[in-house]
Amino acid sequence: MNKLPKIRKVIIAEDVESISAGIEKALKEFNPQQIVHTRYCDDAWLKLKKAELDNDQFDLLITDLSFKQDHREVKLKGGEELITAVRKDNISCKIIVFSIEDKPVKIQSFFNDYFIDGYVLKSRRDNVELAKAFRSLILGETYMSDEIREKIHSKKNISKVEEIDLLIIRQLCEGMTQDEISQLFQQRDIKPNSISTIEKRLKNLKEDFSAKTNIELVLIFKELGLV
């Protein structure tokens, strides 16, 4: 990935004015010469295209993925369609996605299929995350929020999960304690079934999936569709 010595010209595609203003605030410390706001993906694409033709390209596109539909008829209904159009037309700008979408498979596809340069989750600390993303671009690095990175890491660890692990997690979902799970497994002749083995497996799973507690581990497994 090429370095971006200076963030000179930025276009923001975001239909919520307060969020768009927050992005601009996060950009201020990088002193961009021009920040353009658009509420529609069609407008963003047209401005990007014109800038390319005028040889006055935008350095960076920051876009949400979901845009609320209103009375106006549009061709590009969301950020993914905008990114697709930008890449198809070989418009030379960096792209950061700024969205609430947190599904790891979907997020990874943006890096793999569209070669985006950063993905930041909308959150309470998103101004800090945006600043980190901008610094990464300047250094020539891609950026991904820590929360996303952990989820993608968890997704990669699915292959390590065994059937006995799923059985343990399913019983935790039912509200059983580790002692009760051990007793149930012994009654049903499910092996291994010792309390020490169950504790060890849960410990390893929490490490693999970056979970601090059994409850958090259960939530991660549910989110990944494993239980």
UniProtKB/TrEMBL annotation:
What's in the keyword line of the UniProt record?
DNA-binding, Phosphoprotein
Domain of life (superkingdom):
Bacteria
Q: Which residues form the Response regulatory domain?
A: 9-137
| SUPFAM superfamilies per the UniProt record, alphabetical | CheY-like
Q: Does the keyword Kinase apply?
A: no
Name a single GO biological process. Answer: phosphorelay signal transduction system
Q: What PROSITE patterns does UniProt report for this protein, alphabetically?
A: RESPONSE_REGULATORY (PS50110)
Task: Give the 4-aspartylphosphate positions (modified residues).
Answer: D64
Instruction: Respond yes or no to whether keyword Phosphoprotein is given for this record.
Output: yes
Matching entries from InterPro entries are given as: CheY-like_superfamily, Sig_transdc_resp-reg_receiver
Annotated GO MF terms: DNA binding
What's this protein's name? DNA-binding response regulator, NarL/FixJ family, contains REC and HTH domains
